[in-house]
Structures are given as C-alpha cells and as structure tokens.
Amino acid sequence: GRGREAGEEVNRSTGADRALWRYRSRTPRGGAALHASHFSDFRRRCVGGIGSIYWSRPGRAPTRDGEGKPQPDPAAPFCRPRRLFADRGRTALRRRSTRRRRRRRTGQASIAGGQGQGDPPPPTGDSEVYCGLWANEGHCDLNSDYMLHHCAGSCEVRYSLAPAPIVAADWPVSPHRQSTNVMLSQQLVFREATILPGEDAAAGAFRYAEDFNQYKLEKFQFDILPISTVVDIAYALQAELTDLRPDYEVDEGIANCGKELCSADMLWRRAEDQMMEELVERQRQREFDEDQKNARQKIRRKKERVAVMEAEARRFEHKNSWIKFGERLIASLAASRVPGWWTKVISTFTQDGPQGGNCEETLAVIKIIPLKSKTVGIRLIELRCHELLGDPMSTLAVANEMTSGKVNGDPWQNKDFHTMVVTVGANAAMQLGLSGNASGFYQTAQEIDPEHSQYRLLKKVMELLNTTEEHIQEGDYEKALDSIDHCLSATRGLDAQSTLFLSSIQLKNCTILSNMGKDEEALANCDMAVETRLSNIAVVDREAIQEAYLVRSDALQLDMDYEEALNDIRAAMDLIPQPADDSDHRYMEETQRLYNRLLTAMHRQKLYNGGEIDFKYNKHTGYPDGRPPERDHEKILQLPKKLKRRSKEGKCAWLKENFKRLARHYHPDKYKGSKKRAERKFKEVKEAKEYISRQWDC
C-alpha cells in the first residue's frame, strides 16, 4: 500500500506527465527518494497498474473481449506484480539530481510549469474507441502514460503550459537555473475566496486574506499576504461576479466606506475598528455582568445578616426556655409535689442554678431509674444533659425516642416541651451532618407550627445542594458556584451551625473551584473539609472520610500535584475494613475501584514528570533522557488561549509579564500558603518559561 501511494508522487519521464504532476513531485531534504526508472517503464506496459493481471504491449491498447473488459496479453510476460522500494540515503538524492541534469542536457526540461523543448506536441483528442469507457474505469490514473497520448480528450487534460517557469511567492528560486525549487515546499495551501450576499469583491478578498493569513501563521509562521495580492484577488472576484450575476447589487452598508466604495486598505481599517468596538462591547458586557453579580450578592448578604440575627434570637429564646424549665423544677421541689426519687434528680440538675448543670452526676442518677418510670420531665433533663456534655449521638437517640412516643405520657401536651425537643434533636442531627434526620424533626413540628421557618429554610438548603450537584454533573460550573454561594448564605440562617454539614458544602465548592482553575481556593476548602471530618472521626463514618480524601485527590490532580493526590488515594484505601474471609465481593469491588484510581493518577504522574525510558523513547530514537514531560506550559503560566495569533513581540511581552507575576506570587519566602506547594509551583513556572522562550525565540 505504501509503495503504491508513494508511486503517485513519482516524477514522470515525459514532458506532458511532468506538467500534470509538477506540484506533486516533492521530496523533503534528507527524506526518501524513489527509484522511478523501472516503475515508469512498468506503468507504460501495465494497463491495470501495479499488481494488475491485465497486460499490454508498449504503445498498444489492452486486448478486450466482447463486453469490453480487458484481457491478459500473453505477449507481455514481463509485466507482473512488483513492489516499489524507497532508498532513504543521500545516494538516491544524488542519482535523482544526475537524472535531472541528464534530461536538461538532452532537451527534456524539468522546470515546473514549462514544457520540455524535446517533447512532442500534446495530443488533443481520442485515438481509441474505448477511451470514454477506460476513463470511467479510472485508467487515466492507473495507466496515465498511455491514456494521455491516446485518450487525452476523455481524461480532460489541458496542456496550457506557460513558456516561462511559474515562481510561487514563498518558494525560493535557484539562481543558477532560474527555476523554482519545488523540493523545499512541504505542503500546498488551498483556500477559496467567496462573496457572500450583499458584499462586494473587496469584502470577499479581505475575508480570503484573513483566512489565509490565519492559516499560514498557525501552520508555517509565514508573513501576511501582501495588499497587492489581495487587490488582484478582488479584481478576479469582481470579473467572475460580473460574468455570473450582471444584475447583482451591492449593499452599501457593507461595501461603502463613507461616500466611496471600500478598497482593501479601507476594509482593513474598518475591520480593525470593528474588532476594537467588539472588544469594548465585550468588556462592557463583562462589567455589566459583574455589576449584576455584585448587586445580587449584596442583596443576598443583606438577607443573610437578617437570617443570622433571627437565628441568634431563636438561640436566645431556646436558652431561656431551658431556664424557665429549670425554674419550674425548682418551684416543684420547693412545694414538695414530686416523688422521692425525683428529688435527687432535680436537686442534682439544678444545683448550679435553673440553667442546669452537674450533668454527669445527673445522668448517673437517671441511669438507675427503670425505663418504665422515666417520665417526660426526666427525659427532658436527660436530653439537656447530653446536649450540655456535647454528645450529639446520645442526644439524637433520646430525641428520637421522645418523638416516637417511647416515653410515659404525651410529650406534646406542652408546646414549649415540643419546641425544645425538636430544636435539640435537629441541632444534634445537623452536628452529625444528618440533614435528613434534622428535616424529619422539623416535619414533626409542623403539626403545631405549619409555617415552621426552620423547616422551610432547611428544605431550601437541601434543594440548593441538589441543584448544585446537577450543575456539576452538567459541567456548568458558573451556575454551580452561584448556587453553592446561595446555599452557604442560607445555611448561616439555621439554628445549628454544624461543621460536619458545612464540610459537605465545602467539598462541592472544592470541586467547582478546581474545575474553574481556582486551585488555591479549592484546596483551601478541601483541606478544611478533610480536617473537620478527621477531627470528628468518632461520629463520622468511613465513607464520609473516604469521600473527602477522593475529592481532594481530584483537586490536587487538576493542580498537577500528583504526589499528594496519590497519598490521599492511598489513605482512602487504608480505610477499607478488612473482610472476615476472601469471599466478600463488596470488599473486592471497592478495593478494585480505588486501585484503578490509583493507577490512573500514577500514569498521569509519569506523563507529567517524563524521563521514562521505553522502546519508543530511548537513546537510539533520539531521547537519551527518556520520555519528554507532557505539560501544558501555557496553562501553567496562565497565558491567553489566542496568544498564538499575536506577533512575536506581543507574545514575548505576555510571557515576561506573566512570569514575573507568578514568580513573585509563588516565591517560597513570600507565599502565604503551603511552602511545599510554593516550591513546586515556582519550579514549574520557571521550567515553563524556559520551554516557551525556546519555542517562541524570546
């Protein structure tokens, strides 16, 4: 397959063939040169091309049967399938140059665009009956030598050859023979100039120049197209437009520059003005969006302050409720209206005042009381003692028993008792990060207070969290950030300020900010969430701690800190409990899932660091230091994505400015965050600057 494809680029031995294939016979310096002597002779004799069984003698058409199909010619046994080989040495190039000089001495010129002096005049018609059929079957390419001489009309070959060599604008010319050195051209660029409805030829030429210049700058770093060439293209477009649409009318709003028709230079200036206006409009739109966002945040902060004040008022009211409850206990004790075993509980609980205290001694007394003898009052004292001791697990358990009716008497006969139990139970659930349990407590309060504000606020917070997760899954991080900010504001209005519940919001905020490129803020949120869950390891399950580790590992990988990311994944794997036997499928699945994440992070680390030596990257293939690092240096230096379209001076100015700013920011002696991260980022910025400086020649 490669031999046949390479054969399409071989320079033919006749002048007509050279004219037809002149822009395809290019060989890079130091590349492969094909031996074409036997190949050209072989193609003239083989109608079906290489590997074909349909043979013919030189200068004759192939033998056909009654249906017009070619038949093998027994008189040409030498025509058999043969492979074309390539010689990649310098000897092949020397042989090719020798053949060119020999043809030039004998009158067979090899100048691109001209006809050899020794070539016969090209044929203009078909000399065979089956030329049309052969052309449809593709023999114009398979057997080009024969078809060009005998079926030129069917192959639609036009021999309009210029008497002088055609020299391209960006191709060097050999001075000793005044011909274009086509071997130095690696690729031809084809672009079409078009006129859209309402435009004139100048607008079409301008668009063509813009497209062509952009392509050349991206691919070859060539200079822009000269204005004279753009004007010539405009003239050609106008002539074509006049022939095709003589009644065409140009929209003056597009084609007129003031009172005169636009020239190419005017269009350049007008396009620059339009680009500047577009930039100004985009900047104004960004400023307007920023003002709108600040206005929304200002309103949100105002509502947040009001909600915080209301929450403080509710906490003060809750504290006063317990003081009133203690005063009622003291009054009942003074009136001697309590049983004998009640006296020790009340006296111990109210020893320091009506606010309650001596919780450990009080709980020890309550523990010896039979469960059937524990009334609503004793349960309230037990609930308050667990809350004062900071034991949310026991507090939640007692509150669940009271709300489920597992006490003697109706706990909801008194509205104040009802409010106290719901508030304490919901606060305990929120401290454990169990927002669903807290919502359940608030739902029970709706029987007495249908417009319970805490229930509605907590429901709003949960809805905002679900909306944030949907935006994250869709990849719309701007909306997710706005939603999580609103959720944080609403959370500050809750009675219970739970750090565990806040850690869930911080993890989502970490995911959003890391995907938006704000790595420092993202890692700060992740660090706080991990520390919060580790400090409450007694009440937090292992799945929550694993979640925090894995979210932070993803953020670290986006920050290109693969070493710390691997440590977090290993820490999450260490939290998997060991099974009793090896047949635990759940353990195997969870271990395999985390192990796959570990392998993925290790692979990314190898690509990022480089230096790995394998069969492709070694000293024999030109990589003595192993695989080169695969890094996005422009991302590391925070360079704009469209900077490649700028000039060299503009790109180097951006590079210098961003390097100075980032070097000052990540300097280990001035960085306010982790010193280890500062050293790593400072090294990355320095290496990225050196790499891009070499590429851009800054």
From TrEMBL:
The keyword Coiled coil applies. Residues 91-106 have a biased composition (Basic residues). InterPro entries: DnaJ_domain, J_dom_sf, TPR-like_helical_dom_sf. Residues 632-697 form the J domain. Pfam families: DnaJ. Residues 57-125 are annotated as: Disordered. SMART domains: DnaJ. It comes from the Eukaryota. Keywords: Coiled coil, Repeat, TPR repeat. SUPFAM superfamilies: Chaperone J-domain, TPR-like. Residues 292-319 form a coiled coil. PANTHER family: DNAJ HOMOLOG SUBFAMILY C MEMBER 7 (PTHR45188:SF2), DNAJ PROTEIN P58IPK HOMOLOG (PTHR45188). This is J domain-containing protein. The lineage of its organism: Eukaryota, Sar, Stramenopiles, Ochrophyta, Bacillariophyta.
